[in-house]
Structure formats: structure tokens, C-alpha cells
Design goal:
Number of domains: 2
Shape: elongated
CATH topology of the largest domain: Immunoglobulin-like
Oligomer: single chain
Helix content: 10-25%
CATH architecture of the largest domain: Sandwich
Number of helices: 1
Distance between the termini: 86 Å
Order of helices and strands: HEEEEEEEEEEEE
Largest sheet: 4 strands, antiparallel
Strand content: 35-45%
CATH class of the largest domain: Mainly Beta
């Protein structure tokens, strides 16, 4: 074929393949951008204590303050509906036995998306965890690691659940 005889026509199968490729790429890029913006967003912030002072043979209380942003609420630890995800605090404390976690009583509020009142937290909420410090606890540097699972909502809808990590330095 001479240079004047080059075929510049577009083959239907090539066009369809390119359209599919661009569609798939744009879908994943859009989904990625959307998930990144939501993943980085938090409806609340946690204020753990600066440290936890341990005295062997005694119980110690750790107060975790949840600051929920205005315009949002989170489900209480005992939501009224089975489909709602309760706020839940979990600690990884193999050498520091957990005795109890005390959640505040939720406020009953009716929203436009639910005909029944829901048990929620808003504003500033404190969750109190009690640990027992064994006599045999070794005095070495460390930290108490935990995670808070919550489901945030505004007045019209609820968002996917999120988990926030919590670290509290231990002092002997």
C-alpha cells in the first residue's frame, strides 16, 4: 500500500472497545474520588486522656470524650432499630483486664427518615471504661489500643459506619 493509500477509517469494534475502556476508567476514577472524600471525613472527633496512670492492684477509669459535629448525631450504644449500627468501643488490653464500658443513655429523637424515635448521641458524649491493674503488671512503657465503631447520621439520612483508632499511653 502506498502512503497515499493509508486507511484512516475507524473500525466499529475499535470504537466500541475505546468507549467501554473510557467508561470503565471514568467509573473507577469517580468512585475513587467519592470514596476518598467520604473516607477522610469524620462526623466526630475523639479526645482521649493524655495518658492513663496505672496503680497495681487497683481499678482505673478511662474517660473518652466524643465530640460530635453540629448537624450530626451517631447511634447510641443501644439503638432502637435492629438495622442501625450501635456505637461500640473495643479495647485490645491483654495485660490490662477490662471490667466494664459505660455508655451514656441515648437521647430519643424522631427524624424525617424514621417514624419511631431513635436513640442517638449528639454534641459532647463521654464513654467510661474501667480496667483492673493486676499486681503482676510489669512496669514497662506501652499504650492501650482501641477502636470506636459508629454510624453517623444527619436529619435526613445515615452514612456507612466508620471506625476510629484510639491510643492512650500508659504511665506507671
Amino acid at each position: 500500500m502506498a502512503s497515499d493509500d493509508v486507511d484512516f477509517s475507524i473500525q466499529p469494534s475499535m470504537t466500541l472497545t475505546r468507549i467501554r475502556t473510557w467508561f470503565i476508567l471514568s467509573f473507577f476514577v469517580g468512585a475513587s474520588i467519592n470514596s476518598q472524600s467520604f473516607e477522610g471525613w469524620q462526623a466526630l472527633s475523639i479526645k482521649p486522656p493524655v495518658s492513663l496512670l496505672l496503680e497495681t492492684g487497683r481499678d482505673v477509669e478511662l474517660v473518652l470524650t466524643l465530640n460530635i459535629k453540629p448537624g450530626y448525631h451517631i447511634n447510641s450504644n443501644q439503638p432502637e432499630e435492629d438495622y442501625l449500627i450501635p456505637t461500640s468501643l473495643n479495647w485490645q488490653s491483654p495485660s490490662l483486664p477490662l471490667k466494664s464500658i459505660n455508655y451514656p443513655i441515648g437521647e430519643l429523637v424522631t427524624y424525617s427518615f424514621s417514624s419511631e424515635p431513635l436513640s442517638v448521641y449528639s454534641g459532647k458524649v463521654q464513654v467510661v471504661s474501667t480496667f483492673h491493674v493486676p499486681e503482676t503488671l510489669q512496669k514497662k512503657p506501652g499504650a492501650l489500643l482501641g477502636s470506636l465503631l459508629y454510624q453517623a447520621c444527619n436529619n435526613t439520612a445515615c452514612f456507612p459506619p466508620k471506625t476510629i483508632s484510639v491510643t492512650v499511653p500508659l504511665v506507671h
